[in-house]
Amino acid sequence: MGLVRWPFWAVVCVFLSVPFCLVASEQEQLEDIVQQPVHCERIDNSQWSRPGSANDWEPFHGRIGDRVLRCDCHDSVRTRRSEEYTVDQQQPNLRNAVFVLSSFPATTVATDILIVNCGQLHVPAGTFRSIRAAFLPRTIRFVNIAQLTLDSFAFETDSSTRTQQVVTNPRDPHPILGPITLSFDRCQLDELPANVFHGAAIRSVLFSTSSVGAIRSLAISTRFQQFLLSDTVVGSFSRHAFKRAQMEQLHLHNVTMTGAWASQAWQGLIVGNSIQIRDSRFLQTIHPAAITESSTYWKNALLVVYVLSYSKV
């Protein structure tokens, strides 16, 4: 049998085609990841009170206003599919869509903002920065987010808004507009990064039936009325996670902590009313100085710790 002699140009083409195929395969994988803005629309009382949407508002803290802005990733998927099907006459590939919450314009007027039903959602820095001081929403609520990524300064508002917060009655449970009650219901976060709430006119931060991988250093470093973790899994508190934080109430109800509670995690924390840790489980070591740091200041605060279990795995 004789050897088959290939022309030199054919051999070169064969070798060049291999990396080209690899690049094309990687390109196809990258094309599967789609950055998609979340579609937001105004809904009235009759829409948010209908049976199909009742679960979105049922455990809501505070009353619901008549100017609700709903940002629904499911609606965004339907809108994108409709647009692409019209152009390409084929079903688009949205398996790995990463939704991005676009910056709200200065013309935004909403008493309540609801972000719901997202597989992956990214909230960049300054998303709420342009909202005018006189038109802050009372509530911003994230519901049913499978993978939520928050950037540092994600909830920052302008300086005039933060100045306005000082003259607002902090004990008023139903302010007209702002400061904001920020809540996360059925959400999963890898982390709360440093300064995620910095510069925000926030009244309360509430986590319910959610999961937070790690609360990083300086993540909770601002002033607000209440910080509540309820029915939530937390990976770990990093060192100085609550440094410079000031609040009236700090409550951990039915919390499971899977990682270590580091020393000085609550160093520099100021609590004016009460600290409650109840019905909670800690699966790793709690450092003896995790809470009782000398620099932690509890002004007339009541510390309640009961029905707490600890197990080393």
Automatic annotation (TrEMBL):
The keyword Signal applies. Residues 1-25 form the signal peptide. It comes from the Eukaryota. Keywords: Signal. This is Uncharacterized protein.
